[in-house]
Specification:
Elements lengths: L1 H24 L19 H4 L3 H21 L4 E3 L7 E6 L5 H10 L5 E2 L12 E5 L5 H20 L9
């Protein structure tokens, strides 16, 4: 039973991450994913996303997420605000296992995409991707508080920290 649960969990994580990756990588031009947050100076902006309401919803989520990350996690993480898109890459400052973090968060109904799913580089193991596309502000707030709690618990538990070699 444990093996089936483990495989199901891995399959679900890979499926979600693959879908997100496919959506992001299927655009021929990186700027296509930037249209939601781009300035009105982009000539294609209104033709790709003509609905101002949709743009405003994502912009509001984006700003709220940045505010919460700065408020609650500035000592645990770093990130560069994206030029566009509906997710951002976050780097952990501590040598915490992102895969273990992902498992714990998944058990608490918070999904992150570990950087190791997108790159074979050892550096990618300190990164994860966080999307704000399919969640509302209440869910963003709850998710950030859960992330903060889990990171605090992992920081206080030496068994969760990977050795730096």
């Amino acid at each position: 039973m444990t093996r089936i649960c483990f495989l199901t969990k891995i399959f679900a994580l890979i499926l979600v991450s693959t879908c997100i990756f496919f959506i992001q990588s299927s655009s021929a031009d990186r700027n296509e994913s930037s249209y939601l947050l781009a300035s009105d100076s982009n000539p294609d902006y209104d033709t790709v996303f003509p609905d101002d309401e949709i743009r405003e919803i994502y912009k509001k989520r984006y700003i709220y997420l940045m505010k919460l990350l700065d408020e609650h996690l500035k000592n645990e993480i770093s990130y560069i605000p994206p030029d566009g898109g509906l997710s951002l890459w976050i780097k952990l400052k501590a040598s915490i296992s992102v895969d273990k973090l992902s498992d714990i968060l998944l058990s608490r109904n918070v999904i992150i995409s570990p950087g190791s799913l997108f790159s074979l580089s050892k550096e990618s193991h300190n990164y994860f991707r966080l999307s704000f596309a399919a969640v509302n502000e209440k869910q963003i707030h709850e998710g950030i508080l859960i992330l903060k709690e889990v990171l605090n618990n992992m920081n206080s538990d030496p068994a969760s920290v990977e050795p730096i070699l």
